[in-house]
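A common beginner's mistake is to predict each chain separately and then try to dock the pieces by hand. The better habit, illustrated here, is to supply every component at once so that their relative placement is modeled jointly.
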Amino acid sequence: MHNGRAMTTETEPAAAAIARAPSHRPSSWGLGDGRAVPWEYAPAPESRDIVRLKDRYGLFIDGREVQAADGERFASVDPATEEVLAEVARATPADIDKAVRAARRAQRTRWGSLSGRARAKYLFRIARVLQERSREFAVLESMDTGKPIKESRDVDIPLVSAHFWYYAGWADKLEYAFPGRVARPLGVAAQIIPWNFPLLMLAWKIAPALAAGNTVVLKPASTTPLSALFFADVCREADLPPGVVNIVPGPAAIGTYLVSHPGIDKVAFTGSTEVGRIIARSVAGTDKALTLELGGKAANIVFEDAALDQAIEGIVNGIYFNQGEVCCAGSRLLVQESIADLLIDKLKDRLSTLRVGDPLDKNTDVGAINSRAQLEKITELVASGVAEGADLYQPACDLPERGYFFRPTLFTNVAQSHRIAREEIFGPVLSVLTFRTPDEAVEKANNTPYGLSAGIWTEKGSRILAMAQKMKAGVVWANTFNKFDPTSPFGGYKESGYGREGGLPGLHAYVRLEDR
Amino acid sequence: MATNGRARVAVRKTYKLYIGGAFARSESGRSYPIAAADGTPLANACRASKKDLRDAVRAARGAFEGWSSRTAMNRGQILYRVAELMEGRREQFIAEVEAAEGLSAPRAAIVVERAIDRWVWYAGWADKIGQVLGSSNPVAAPYFNFTIPEPTGVVGMVAPETSSLLGLVSRLAPAVVSGNSVVVLASEARPLPAMSLTEVLATSDVPGGVINVLTGRRSELVPVLAAHVDVDALDLWGVPDDMRMAVELAAADDIKRLSRRPTGVREARFDWLDDAASERPEWIAAFLEMKTVWHPIGV
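With all components supplied together, the output reads:
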């Protein structure tokens, strides 16, 4: 990246470079000489050939691929091209009934009575197969979600495998996980996952559930069902007993039917707070266990003593990673007033170097928005930011003619009352606010009903710990952002949900503790 | 209470609410009669209003930051202090539990002693729960990653209806030991031991507002507690079965954490004298949030 920049500046006359510079390009590169630098990259597309897509996919119930009871299907679209990738069976209530029965049977007759050692081996097998097929899954995930291949390849898929690996090792060590108590499986888990990290969310849900001896019925998001259906194939490859994992794509309504089903014991949901409320209501008055991982509006707090260039990278990663379609995205930047102008200049410079486009291109930083509906939501919220008086900045990058794309967006002069500072946008849109004192930063950071994550940038260790302590957030990143690991519990405070995924707390969410 | 001229006329106690460290009557001016298990009238208890409940939540919110930022050792000592002071008023509690629950005196003594001991058991957890539930996590990257439990915030608690003192203490101690503040609805029919407990709390260094105790009608107060947006979590132990659905629906609106009675446990049947069943670190964990912090490792 840095080599590329040096080469172009040296080989091209400055005037020509300026002529081709986008209109929004800020004048400063930190050099103060007003030189703009053209950024050109030869396309470096990852081949799609490794993914062999069928025209049609069924549901995965009781170890077999079956069509929906009414034969209905829906299309899964590549958001970067708007082309249909495949048609997928749309689960009906009858299919859900069948899947829940299959899961129950498998839990009672096979999986629940299997030794922990045996369960562990199946999970290790799954982890291994996922590693072996990692490139295929990375490409597929980028095709179905629109996320850049470098993210699916370097973040999503390695974490997916790592998650199965981590929980595999717990399956035969449950007696050490909860001292003095016996951990029993809850039974059948209904799991509903979002479209931003389809396979990773599947792994977060299925791995701990299976390790503890539960069986699952999982509904992937309706815009991104494909990697879950490919995962069904991984289950078969691992010879996982039929019915242990069932996958039932469909619309939101079928998810509601699933979580309301009397035949399940546990509900795990990742998605919006709005839907989380509906799910909490549907579980009310029952004995079902519930964990919710919901929305966020994280503050990313930069103090004046922060290592500024690192902070810039962290801010960019915090909000433009996965097009900002991340529940824990650092969507509210809180900058200490003394460095705000400098930081915003640097940030604008950095934004103009982000490459937006083909998710399958290995150079791409920001891919496609997952769906037309999401693109419209982002567009609407950005318009509200302009209407409410915040200052909009977007780098002048070319967007592909087809597909759902949105420019990396930055708002300055944002008030806490603005919708863009309060509502989860789930897109590449950063709102910049300022603060003077640490107390003010804490006050503003916590001034939200959400509480999923927070970022802190400062070189002062004691300040990091003091700020981390005061954040009402389940995950705090100090001098980093958007890091994940299977051993590291993840989940929210307040209206960002309850329960944790990852680590020992993630296992706790799938067991009932009994007396020895 | 014979009045044969020479006998002293006893000074009877007016039972009040306990809000923000102060003993207040209900702003509504209402009360309801409390009878002993054998039907003998005992006293009038305040019948708290929605306004009283909101005042109590405000007091709890105000006390949360101070209480949760006390050192764990300090909170442990304060809970232990509650046990010390209860021990000193042992006879009073025995008499009240005896009357409220219709127990024999020896049986009531066992109940009270167990309540005292329960404070001691939970007090000791204050500086240990973080070590048992917290962790440093071996992430596959150069970061120091640790997880610590923190108190959830304001807990709305519907106390066990049958076990007026021991049940209450068994639910209260695990919620406050980690730094939560609590608004408790005492047993509706047997509220007097709970109100005497507040006298102990008031003199045992538990900061005002950390534990607020209301008496009154569950049918009136529980829905308000469940819907209050400044209540972060609910302890549903004493919620009657026929109210549970409505309470959980209301709690869903702001994603409140719920601590339900375990499946199959009947409120009136639970044996609070069973230490193994009533002394559970999970009951502390029910009102905790796990916070994970990532810090880079580098020179």
